[in-house]
Design brief:
5-stranded mixed beta sheet, 39 helices, 18 strands
Length: 1037
C-alpha cells in the first residue's frame, strides 16, 4: 500500500516491477498543453488567488474573515510567486487533477513522508497529502467497477467531467488531504483513517485499487506540506483548533474539494444557520431553565460525589483487568483521564434534583490520549457542535442576537456527561450496562438526553440489553420522550405487576437524539442539524417542566408524570413535536438524495455465525412457560414486556399494550413467542413469506411455524436483508434467473445471441470455466439499452473490434458516441471472467483474440499460440504436496504460469529471490504467501492477461483463485511456490528468443508468430530431495 521508500523496515518488501514502471511513467509524463491559462504573472495575482479561495469557502458555507485569513495563512506566498509558480497555481486552481507532485513542489514545498518519522515533540500540527497517480483509462476502469458494484458517488461524475478532454494515456492524480498532530505522523494518521473507514468514497477507492490495479496502490505516496505546519507560539501552549481547521479547509479549497477523496471541506464549523421559524417555536415554549435555572444550581451532596468517584475507579480497574477487550493494550489513557471523566460526569442540582444528563456513545481516541471535557469549545467535533446548539438556545432565552455572545455561566454544569463506552475499543460488553446503571442510580436525572441509537436502545431496554430500539429507522424515535427505568435489570423484571400502575422512583424521561458525531461523516445536509436543534429543544422543554413540577410534586415519579402530561397536551409542546416531525421528514428526503444507491458490504463468516446463533436463540429462548392465564405465565409475560425485546413486537408495537398482553398470555405452553409473532405479522418480510407458503389459516400449523424458524435462521446466517423475501425482490430474482437460464447450455459462441438487459444495465452470460464449473459472466450495458417495453429485444454479436449489443432493428448501443463497438477487446481483461469472453470471441471469429501482425510492438502483448504449449500434461496438475521440482516447468504444466508470474513480480532480477539457497532466504515462501492481497490480485491479473489465452491450465487456475480463501486453495498455491523453491543458479539454459521480424523456433520446430520481446526459459539442474509428505497448512490465501 505504501511506496517502497515509505514502508516500515519491519514489513516484508516485495519490489513489484509493474508498480515501479507505473511510478516511472507517472513521473516522466508531460502534462497536456494548457493554452487557456496565463503564463505571465498578473500584477494582482495574490489578490486574485485569495479571492478565489475565499469564494470556495463561502460556497461551502464556511465562515470567513477576508482580512484575517491571508495574514494567518501566509504560507501560500502568492505575492512572492514567480511567473512559473503563478502558472502552476493557475493549473492547481483550474485543473488540479492534472498537476503532478513534482510541479506542486515548485509552488508549495512538499516533503516525502517516511515510516521512520516520529511525532512532533513541541505540540505542532502538520498537514499531509496522499497522492495516487493513475492514467485516465485506469480511473475510468475504477469508475466502471463502481458502476458494476452499484456504488454511486458524486465524485465519479466530477472526475469524469475533468477527464473529458484528456487522452486515455494521460495521467491524473487523485488526492486526499488531512491533518496529523503531536501523537501521530502523516503515515500513521492515514493508516488510521483507512482502518476506521469501511464505507464512503475513500474506502471504495482503496478497495478498487487493491482489487484491480495494485501497482497504482503501491506507487502512491504521502507528502507533507513543509511550510504549512503550525507550531505553538509558546512552548507547552496548545495550538488553536480553529486555526488548524481553517488551514485544512484552505488546502482542500486550493486543490478543489470535487477533485479530492475528502468528503468534507475540512475542519469543523457550524454550517447550520437557525431559521427564524425555529426560534419562534422555541420562544413559544417560554423556558427559563438556561437563564434563571442556571442561577439555582447547587453543588451535589457528598454521597453522590463519593459514589461517582468509586464508579470511575471501577471503570479504570476494569480497563486494567481487560486490556484487550477495552483496547488499552494498544493505547493507555492520558494523564488526568480520571479527573476529566469525574468532572464532566459530576452534575449540579436544582432543589436537590438533577434535571438533565447527557449520555454519549463512545470516546474519541484523541480525547482518550489527551483528556479534555466533552462539552468544550474547540474540543471534539461532537462536543463542539452540541455546545454550539445549547448556546443558540441560551441566546434565544436571553433574547440576544446571533452576533452577540452569551456568558455561558454554569452552562456545562447543567449538562453532566457520561460515555457509555469510555475506552478506545468500541465493542459492546455486558459490563457497560452495569456502569451506566450505577451512574444513573447515583445522580437520578429527571430527563436524559441520549445521543445515539445505542444508548437509546440500552435505556429503552431498561438496561437489560442493547436491542431496545430497532436498527432500522431510528430517526422515527428521535425526540419522542419515554419513561425508562435505570433499576437493576433483573430486579426490575421481577417487580410485582403493581409497579406498572405507579412508576417507581428509578425512572427517567429519556429523549433519544442523533449522535452529534455523525455530523462529521460525509456531506451531511443542513436538515440534520435542524433535527438536532429541535431534539435539544424537546430535552430543554422537559427539563424546564420538571424544574417547575418538582417544587410541588410529592415525589420524582409524580414530577415526571405531571411533566409528561403537560408535554402531551399543551399547544406549545404539540407545536414543537410537529415541527420536529417536519424536520425529520426533510432529513429523510435529503438522505435519500445523498444515498441514491444502496451500499452493500461483505458479510464475514464470524458475523454470519453470530447472526445464526442470535436467530436460533430468538427462536428457542422465547418459549411460553406455564399454562395460558396462569400466574407463572403472567410473571413471564410481564418480565418480557419490561425487557422490551424488539423481536417480540414484530406484529404488535408497544403502543398496543393490551393486545400484546392478551396475545402473550394466551399462547400455548411451549410455543415460541418469536415464531408466533412472525406468523401473525403482515408487514414483516418473513410474515409475507409465511402467507406464500401457507395460504389462509395454515400458518397455525406447527410444522409451518418450524419451517419459518428454519428460514429465519438461514436468512440471518447468510446476512440477507429483512425484506429479502418480499414479493418485489422474489420477482426480481426470478427475472434475473430466467434472463439467462432459459437459454439452456453454457454459451460458447457470441453471434446473434438473445440476452436480457436487467434494470441497471447488467447482462449475465453463463460460461464454462474448467471441466465442469459454470460461472456467471457479468457485463454492464449502456443505460439506453435497458428495454422500455417487453417487445424490445437485445442481441449480442462478436465484431472485429469486440462485442456489440444490438436492438431489434439492428442498431448498436454504445457507451460513448466516439466508441466503435459496445465493448472493445481491451475491456475484456478488466472483467472477472474476461478470459472466457475472449475464448468465446475466438470461437466465433475463428482467429486469435489478439492480432499480433496488426498491432504495434509497444502497445500489444505477446499472444502465444496453442501450438507453443503443446498437449496438456494432465500428470503435472496444480500441486497438492510441497514436492520440489528437479526440472524447469514446461509450458504445458500447471507450474509454468506461476514461474513466469514470479519473474514478472520481482522484475529483472527475478532469479535472485526464488533461485537462492535455503540458507540465504529460509522463509521466502511464507513471507510471499502471507501477503494475501498481493498473491490474489497480482497472480489472478497475470493469468488473465490476453497473451496467455491458450495456456492449457488457465481455466483451472482461474477457477481455483475464484473459489475463495479456503485452506485447500491456500495449500495448493503454497505447494506450487515450494516446488519452485530450490532451483540453483548453476543450470543449463534452453532459451527461447524472439527477435523483431523473426519466426519463433522451439527445439527446431517453427511457429508462425510475429515479433515479440526477448524471453528466456531455463531448465534447472539437479536439486536436493525434500520430504514429500503433506505439511500442515499455515494460513489461507
Amino acid at each position: 500500500m505504501f511506496a517502497a521508500i515509505q514502508r516500515s523496515a519491519t514489513l516484508p518488501v516485495y519490489q513489484s516491477s509493474r508498480a515501479l514502471q507505473h511510478a516511472e511513467r507517472a513521473t516522466s509524463f508531460q502534462a497536456p498543453a494548457t493554452h487557456n491559462l496565463q503564463v505571465s504573472r498578473p500584477e494582482n495575482f495574490g489578490h486574485i488567488m485569495w479571492l478565489e479561495l475565499l469564494r470556495r469557502l463561502r460556497a461551502n458555507k464556511v465562515p470567513t474573515n477576508p482580512t484575517l485569513i491571508p495574514l494567518q495563512h501566509g504560507f501560500f506566498r502568492f505575492d512572492d510567486a514567480s511567473d512559473r509558480q503563478a502558472y502552476i497555481w493557475n493549473r492547481i486552481i483550474n485543473m488540479p487533477m492534472t498537476v503532478s507532485a513534482e510541479e506542486i513542489q515548485e509552488a508549495l514545498p512538499l516533503q516525502l513522508a517516511n515510516a521512520l518519522d516520529a511525532p512532533a515533540q513541541d505540540g505542532s500540527f502538520g498537514f499531509y497529502m496522499r497522492s495516487f497517480p493513475l492514467q485516465v483509462q485506469q480511473l475510468e476502469d475504477i469508475l466502471a467497477h463502481w458502476d458494476e458494484c452499484e456504488l454511486v458517488f458524486q465524485e465519479a461524475s466530477d472526475w469524469r467531467a475533468a477527464m473529458r478532454r484528456l487522452g486515455s494515456d494521460h495521467f491524473v492524480h487523485i488526492r486526499y488531504i488531512g491533518v496529523f498532530g503531536p501523537t501521530s505522523t502523516a503515515l500513521s494518521r492515514f493508516e488510521s483513517d483507512i482502518s476506521q473507514r469501511s464505507s464512503g468514497v475513500l474506502a471504495a477507492f482503496l478497495r478498487s485499487l487493491a482489487t484491480i490495479m495494485p501497482e497504482v496502490l503501491d506507487a502512491a505516496k504521502v507528502f507533507v506540506f513543509k511550510t504549512a505546519t503550525i507550531h505553538p507560539l509558546v512552548p507547552g501552549e496548545v495550538v488553536s483548533q480553529a486555526l488548524i481547521d481553517e488551514r485544512e479547509r484552505l488546502l482542500i479549497a486550493a486543490f478543489d474539494l470535487q477533485s479530492l477523496l475528502n468528503r468534507q471541506t475540512g475542519g469543523f464549523f457550524s454550517a447550520y444557520e437557525p431559521r427564524a421559524e425555529d426560534a419562534e417555536v422555541f420562544a413559544g415554549l417560554n423556558t427559563q431553565v438556561l437563564t434563571r435555572g442556571l442561577l439555582e444550581l447547587r453543588s451535589p451532596d457528598p454521597t453522590m460525589m463519593k459514589e461517582l468517584g468509586l464508579l470511575i475507579d471501577d471503570i479504570l480497574d476494569f480497563m486494567d483487568d481487560h486490556p484487550v477487550l477495552t483496547g488499552t493494550s494498544r493505547a493507555a489513557p492520558g494523564p488526568g483521564f480520571k479527573d476529566v471523566m469525574l468532572a464532566q460526569a459530576l452534575p449540579s442540582t436544582i432543589s436537590g434534583h438533577v434535571l438533565l444528563a447527557v449520555l454519549g456513545k463512545d470516546i474519541t481516541l484523541e480525547d482518550f490520549l489527551q483528556p479534555r471535557p466533552f462539552l468544550k469549545k474547540e474540543g471534539s467535533r461532537a462536543g463542539d457542535l452540541l455546545l454550539q446548539l445549547i448556546q443558540i438556545l441560551q441566546r434565544w432565552e436571553l433574547g440576544i442576537g446571533p452576533g452577540e455572545l452569551s456568558t455561558g455561566t454554569n452552562l456545562t454544569a447543567f449538562f453532566p456527561f457520561f460515555d457509555l463506552i469510555p475506552w478506545p475499543r468500541h465493542d459492546f460488553c455486558v459490563a457497560l450496562l452495569d456502569f451506566l446503571g450505577r451512574y444513573l442510580r447515583a445522580i437520578k436525572p429527571l430527563v436524559t438526553l441520549s445521543c445515539s441509537r445505542l444508548t437509546s436502545s440500552v435505556l429503552n431496554a431498561h438496561l437489560a440489553h442493547e436491542h431496545g430500539l430497532p436498527v432500522t429507522d431510528f430517526l422515527a424515535h428521535v425526540g419522542v420522550p419515554r419513561l425508562c427505568s435505570f433499576m437493576d435489570a433483573e430486579e426490575f423484571a421481577n417487580q410485582p405487576p403493581t409497579v406498572e400502575a405507579r412508576e417507581p422512583e428509578t425512572f427517567t424521561i429519556m429523549v433519544p437524539a442523533l449522535d452529534p458525531g455523525r455530523d462529521k461523516y460525509g456531506k451531511q445536509p443542513e436538515s440534520l442539524r435542524q433535527v438536532m436543534l429541535f431534539t435539544l429543544q424537546v430535552a430543554i422543554a422537559l427539563a424546564d417542566l420538571s424544574r417547575t413540577t418538582i417544587r410541588t410534586a410529592t415525589s420524582r415519579a409524580d414530577a415526571m408524570e405531571r411533566a409528561l402530561l403537560v408535554w402531551r397536551t399543551a399547544p406549545q409542546y404539540v407545536a414543537l413535536a410537529a415541527a420536529l416531525d417536519r424536520a425529520k421528514d426533510r432529513l429523510r428526503q435529503d438522505w435519500l438524495l445523498l444515498n441514491v444507491a444502496a451500499r452493500t458490504r461483505d458479510i464475514t463468516e464470524q458475523e454470519r455465525d453470530r447472526r445464526s446463533m442470535q436467530a436460533q436463540t430468538r427462536a428457542k429462548a422465547f418459549v411460553a412457560q406455564g399454562q395460558p392465564g396462569s400466574q407463572e405465565r403472567q410473571t413471564q409475560v410481564l418480565a418480557l414486556w419490561r425487557y422490551n425485546w424488539p423481536d417480540l413486537h414484530i406484529h404488535l408495537t408497544r403502543a398496543d399494550r393490551e393486545a400484546w398482553f392478551s396475545w402473550a398470555r394466551g399462547l400455548g405452553e411451549g410455543k415460541s413467542y418469536y415464531a408466533s409473532a412472525l406468523a401473525k405479522s403482515s408487514g414483516h418480510g418473513l410474515g409475507r413469506l409465511l402467507q406464500q407458503l401457507a395460504p389462509g389459516q395454515d400458518h397455525a400449523d406447527p410444522q409451518v411455524r418450524q419451517q419459518v424458524i428454519e428460514l429465519a435462521v438461514a436468512r440471518l446466517r447468510w446476512g440477507w436483508s429483512s425484506d429479502h423475501f418480499s414479493t418485489e425482490k422474489q420477482a426480481e430474482r426470478a427475472r434475473q434467473r430466467l434472463g439467462w437460464r432459459k437459454m439452456g447450455a453454457p454459451i460458447t459462441r457470441i453471434k446473434d445471441l438473445q440476452v436480457s438487459v436487467m434494470r441497471g444495465g447488467i447482462i449475465r452470460l453463463p460460461m464454462k470455466a474448467g471441466d465442469a464449473t459454470i460461472v456467471d459472466v457479468q457485463i454492464r450495458a449502456p443505460a439506453a439499452s435497458v428495454p422500455a417495453d417487453k417487445k424490445d429485444s437485445r442481441t449480442l454479436s462478436a465484431t472485429e473490434d469486440g462485442i456489440g449489443l444490438f436492438d431489434q432493428d439492428g442498431r448498436m448501443f454504445k457507451h460513448n458516441a466516439t466508441d466503435t463497438v459496445t465493448w472493445a477487446k481491451n475491456f475484456f481483461p478488466q472483467l472477472k471472467h474476461g478470459s472466457l469472453l475472449a475464448q468465446a470471441w475466438e470461437r466465433t471469429m475463428g482467429r486469435p483474440f489478439q492480432d499480433v501482425q496488426t498491432q504495434p510492438l509497444q502497445s500489444s502483448p505477446l499472444v502465444l499460440p496453442a501450438a507453443f504449449y503443446g498437449a496438456k500434461d494432465h500428470k503435472a496438475g496444480i500441486r497438492i504436496k510441497r514436492t520440489l521440482r528437479t526440472t524447469a516447468p514446461e509450458p504445458n504444466e500447471a507450474d509454468w504460469i506461476m514461474w513466469l508470474w514470479l519473474q514478472d513480480l520481482f522484475g529483472s532480477d527475478s532469479g535472485r529471490i526464488f533461485l537462492c539457497n535455503e540458507e540465504q532466504e529460509p522463509d521466502w515462501v511464507t513471507r510471499l504467501a502471507d501477503d494475501v492481497k498481493m498473491v490474489r490480485s497480482t497472480l489472478k491479473a497475470f493469468i488473465s492477461r490476453p497473451e496467455y489465452v491458450h495456456y492449457p491450465w488457465r481455466a483451472e487456475w482461474q477457477a481455483l483463485l475464484d473459489t475463495g480463501s479456503s485452506a485447500h486453495v491456500s495449500q495448493k498455491i503454497k505447494a506450487t511456490l515450494r516446488a519452485l523453491r530450490n532451483f540453483t543458479e548453476q543450470r543449463k539454459s534452453e532459451s527461447i528468443r524472439l527477435q523483431p521480424n523473426a519466426r519463433l523456433s522451439i527445439n527446431g520446430q517453427l511457429l508462425s508468430l510475429e515479433a515479440a520481446p526477448t524471453w528466456d526459459i531455463a531448465e534447472a539442474g539437479p536439486a536436493e530431495d525434500e520430504d514429500e509428505d503433506e505439511d500442515e497448512d499455515d494460513g489461507d490465501i
